[in-house]
Recover the amino acids of this structure.
């Protein structure tokens, strides 16, 4: 199930509710709750991190990659080359496992959260995108 929302400062955002993920050579295939497949080529992705919400306080935490375990819940947040935020809500698969597998299959991604990501700082995003492009070209 896909729905478009707006993140802070009008950054285009897409939300996906995923029950299964398959990692191929050049893309990740996410299967949503209606058994529809969404294909995300690794070459279109720039950044990834986890968001874990506390249901009682409403606080959101974003653990560093070194703190992520495969059994962590939450949502996998991706940014594509067009600065779209893709929020992957998980059901049946753990967000921590998805992030770890993504790090193996697309090792040139920027893995981690930076505060400017949700603030609409396009200049910083373009720098990150260029850095990822250089890493991809070298690798």
């Amino acid at each position: 199930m896909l729905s478009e929302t707006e993140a802070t400062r009008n950054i285009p955002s897409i939300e996906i509710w995923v029950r299964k993920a398959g990692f191929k050579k050049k893309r990740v295939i996410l299967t949503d709750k209606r058994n529809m497949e969404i294909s995300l080529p690794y070459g279109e992705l720039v950044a990834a991190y986890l968001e874990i919400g506390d249901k009682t306080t409403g606080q959101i935490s974003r653990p560093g990659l070194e703190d992520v375990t495969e059994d962590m819940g939450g949502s996998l947040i991706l940014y594509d080359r067009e600065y779209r935020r893709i929020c992957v809500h998980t059901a049946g698969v753990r967000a921590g496992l998805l992030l770890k597998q993504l790090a193996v299959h697309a090792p040139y991604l920027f893995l981690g959260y930076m505060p400017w990501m949700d603030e609409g700082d396009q200049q910083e995003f373009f720098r990150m995108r260029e850095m990822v492009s250089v890493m991809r070209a070298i690798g």
The longest strand covers residues 12-23. The CA atoms of residues 30 and 38 lie 5 Å apart. DSSP finds two helices and nine strands in the chain.
